[in-house]
Specification:
This protein is an alpha/beta fold. The chain contains 15 helices and 13 strands.
């Protein structure tokens, strides 16, 4: 197959990580794949470094420059289908296929990885009706899309994936802890994610105050940046935790965060899936998440991690303390978490799932 993937997001987030894993997975299996990316995008840079052919465009007014570029590429006849990986790309690819005179008859695949309703406007609905397949990254997202009038018969679920990394060595753990100024015996909780209200880092800081009543030396490492950083730093000071919460900012070599942690926490309220949680579990870090959105599809409570109901510092801290107290329980959670990811959420499984979707679209398009 020859796939044109379109992603016009400039920042590096979970969807862009999935795009890069998909591009690599397609090529590893003998398929051809090229990328249309926004000027200066992190995905374009990383895809280019991975020897993927990248076509750079301006997102521009109403996505028209990108649409013109995509249409020019598709008219050349080199591609079998076009796949829009995020919302800006959906608009550009849809416009490219419409054309002024003659629509292009190529299968149009849309990735859907948010739980927000699809817009009710005729334009928003038309884009999704034009899709050959809408690929949701979880069952929860699939249901949200169907509830927004997306054609249910066009919706497929392909879970996002992560590379299964080697386990950390003792030396890697020691080096990571030294980087963050944390001793080897210090209980370290952590989270990786953009600092936004719906990501819930506030509740981790509040929970740390409770954890420290039992483990006075415990610390919290927050990797990521965002508009809530000032508020979170102020909260840490108000709770006299300014020396116990490490604001790491954006960390490029993120494995240096995971290698340092004893417990990973994801306090997100509205999560379609989560790459950071998958990575933590793949690294065998015992993990805790809110039972919100699709997170219950990842963690099997009490087996491959712990689920808590929501923003209750007492419940969150009790789960963290339980892991810190019981080393055997923590190790069993970590091991089961890795197996859970290997069996259901690996990058290989994601790539194979997307290839299956593409093949079905091409078969349907030829009949």
């Amino acid at each position: 197959m020859k796939v044109l993937l379109v992603d016009l997001e400039t920042e590096w987030r979970g969807g862009q990580n999935q795009a890069l894993l998909l591009l690599k997975g397609l090529r590893e299996r003998g398929h051809e794949a090229e990328l249309v990316a926004a000027d200066g995008s992190a995905l374009g840079e990383r895809a280019g470094s991975a020897a993927v052919r990248v076509h750079y465009v301006s997102r521009g007014l109403f996505r028209l420059p990108a649409a013109r570029k995509v249409r020019a590429l598709l008219r050349g006849g080199r591609f079998d289908l076009v796949h829009a990986n995020e919302a800006h790309a959906v608009t550009a690819a849809w416009l490219a296929l419409q054309g002024r005179r003659k629509p292009l008859q190529l299968p149009f695949v849309i990735s859907r990885r948010v739980g927000y309703p699809i817009g009710k406007s005729s334009l928003a609905q038309a884009r999704y009706r034009a899709a050959a397949r809408i690929v949701a990254n979880s069952k929860w997202v699939a249901e949200q899309a169907a509830a927004s009038d997306a054609p249910r018969e066009k919706i497929s679920v392909v879970y996002e994936g992560t590379d299964i990394p080697p386990r950390f060595t003792t030396e890697q753990r020691q080096g990571a802890r030294a980087r963050w100024g944390v001793s080897q015996s210090t209980p370290l909780l952590g989270c990786v994610g953009v600092l936004l209200p719906d990501k819930g880092q506030e509740w981790l800081i509040r929970s740390l105050a409770e954890v420290k009543k039992e483990s006075s030396g415990a610390k919290l490492l927050l990797a990521g940046d965002g508009p809530c950083r000032g508020h979170l730093e102020s909260l840490a000071r108000d709770l006299h935790l300014e020396d116990d919460v490490i604001f790491a900012g954006f960390v490029k070599n993120i494995e240096n965060v995971y290698a340092a942690l004893d417990v990973f926490l994801l306090p997100s309220f509205f999560e379609a899936l989560n790459n950071s949680l998958l990575a933590a579990m793949a690294y065998e870090i015992p993990s805790i998440a809110f039972k919100q959105g699709a997170l219950g599809e990842i963690i099997e409570n009490e087996k491959s991690g712990l689920l808590v109901s929501g923003p209750d510092p007492a419940e969150i801290s009790a789960a963290a303390i339980r892991i810190l107290r019981d080393r055997e329980f923590a190790m069993n959670l970590g091991r089961a978490g890795r197996v859970r990811v290997e069996d259901n959420f690996s990058a290989d499984k994601m790539a194979l799932g997307m290839i299956h979707v593409y093949e079905e679209c091409l078969r349907n398009n030829s009949t």
